[in-house]
Amino acid sequence: MTLYGEKSPPADDRPTVQVTAVTWPDDGPGPVTVPTGEPEGGRSRPRRVRMLLAAGVTGGVLAAVAGAGAWAYAGDVPRGTTVLGTELGGRSRTDADRELRAELDRRAAALAAPLRVTVGERTAEIKPTDVGLAVDVAATVAAAAETDAHPVSRLVGSRTVDPVVTVDVDRLDAALRKVLGDQARPMTMPAITYQGTTPKVVQPKPGLAFDPQRSADAVRAGWLAGAPVTVPLVESQPVTTAEELDRLVAELAKPAVAAPVTVRTDKGSVKIPPAAIAKSLRFNADKAGKLTPAVDVKRLRSALGDDLDAIEVPPKDATMTISGGRPKVTDGRPGQQLDTATLGRDLLAVLPKSDGREVTGELKPTPPELTAEKLAGLGIKERVSTFTTRFTGGMASSRSQNIATIAKEVDGTVVLPGKTFSLNGHTGERAYAQGYRDAPVILDGKLVPGVGGGTSQFTTTLFNATYYAGLEDVEHKPHSYWFDRYPAVIESTIFWPNLDFKFRNNTQYGLLIDTSYTSSTITVSIWSTKIYDSVKTEYGPRRNVTTPKLIHLEPGPTCIPSNGINGFTQDAFRVIKKGGVVVKREKFTWRYDAEPRYVCGPKPS
């Protein structure tokens, strides 16, 4: 070993040494140059020398590790990562995206090939594009880039990342259902209903179908592997078993209707008879087939009818009338009604009991649905449209009285913005109890006496008033025959309960239906805020005209003769203008049959 220096160093300095072999932390064998002036074998290497040596070796190791780490962490995707057999490791996301797309292009023909799918005992082929099968490249690269691996794992490890495959579950479900066909068997949901006051039971039965999620997973895997797919069929059982259903019948459904229940309030009491209980006690099944009993308080109130008048005071809505050519608001009043939330809960609790069948009802203040303030703010300020039709016979006629009766029922009705008005829903059944009389109606193509005859004339008048107000037509049906007292096509009949007239208030304002009548006319006006310049009707020519046949009928009180009316087809166009331009043009078309000429009597010999 050679030492370099021009002169001896200071006494407390140590000379530079050259090491040929080092072992630490304990001294080991090997030639080491010992500082001058130190006795051989007398002292270990100086501490500073050992620290310098350690630092030098450690620095070298760290430099090596740092270099390896830089190599391992190069790019966004960890080294050793493959997708579909393609090495993406060490690449940026952009490069990995490009490489994966290139691999998918190489596999394009295989991935586009029809997929053989077996569902139950049937097999079919499904095109991948028809069900939205695709590799989400961006999501796959993101999954490949995600790792919490140890640096050493990144340096020497390897891993395979499955592609992220998308599929349109709804389209796949529809395709698989076609293959499944009638092999599917829906669950028979358990049910408890009443026939009168007798419980009727539907026993639960298992269903057979495929699970959408499991099916999608199987199809994704099979598509990538290019292998046939078997979609497993799953038998599903309703949550409520036959034993639980029988228990519900024995412990609730039967005892519930065994005796009445008394509702006691501060204003008196009301008995709920078994028939009303049967109409309101519902056993609702969810999608899993779990039955849950509940009292439908709306049905209960309907079943009790006027019996609740003994303890309740119904709220009264504010009303609007036309007085002196202007709308006038009359305030309503609050009422007192049973608290339906607590009533349903408490009633359900006592229905299984054989005694103590009483509940306490709480009467709560009930505000009117329509207050004077709300009504005044609906923008009902001017007459938007009006329509009048004429009738004969005077008010002594049963038909005329029916027209007046329905007009009075509808007069003053307010329809809120966005709401739909149903004439049948508003009046209910038009029967003798409601003041209606027998008058001619069309039944099976013939005029015969029927309760409520003539109400179609009011319906036509109301329809035209809403039509010329520009309101949305929801449901109407013209008569089978055309009567010249009505405008062709733009008219409507009504018949309980099958034929209805409905319109929707498709404006931002409320509207008022105002009716009036004389001994020969019926008028309906719509009051609101006018939003259109004009609403007019343009008619097309009548076509396909047919002439009436002569038919002889059995004479008697039910035979009503007629002169016959031609049949024809015609178009009517509702033209709506706003701001001087046409904003809507709606086509209405109807085909009228030729009304036969009915003669009450036999054919001449």
From TrEMBL:
Chain segments annotated as transmembrane: 52-74
Membrane in keyword set: yes
Coiled coil: none
Protein keywords: Membrane, Transmembrane, Transmembrane helix
Cited Pfam families: PG_binding_4 (PF12229), VanW (PF04294)
InterPro entries: Glycopeptide_resist_protein, Vancomycin_resist_VanW, YoaR-like_PG-bd
Segments for region (Disordered): 22-44, 317-338
Protein name as annotated: Vancomycin resistance protein YoaR, contains peptidoglycan-binding and VanW domains
Protein source organism: Micromonospora cremea
